[in-house]
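Protein: Hydrogenase maturation factor HypA
Species: Pseudonocardia endophytica
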Amino acid sequence: MHELSITQEVVDQIVAKLGDVRVRRVRLEVGRLSGIVPDAMAFCFELVTAGTGLEGAALEFDRPSGSARCRTCGAQFRCSEPLPLCDCGSADVEVTGGTSLRIREVEVEPACAPPADAPTTPA
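Structure follows.
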């Protein structure tokens, strides 16, 4: 299951940037042709976030569809299979979209503000 190492890398990147800040939500873009299974990644997310600022954070996925261009006839089309075929029958196809993995958004807990009546200078 390669999702474990991929998820660990995503968490490591967030922790490296934010430290121990509490995270509420992480939104990832995982293209439909990326070879990554979101359900497996969600399972791994719970495992690898234990003891970090991401523990308990919600994990959301954007799933852009795949797109390709036929080198034989020039047609551009949407696809959902990792080995797309053009309607013309050609397998000489260049995948042009849907292979992405990106951290799109990280929502953190707001920092606690001091009480309104707290002194602003040391006493």
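Remarks: The helical segments are 3-18, 38-48.
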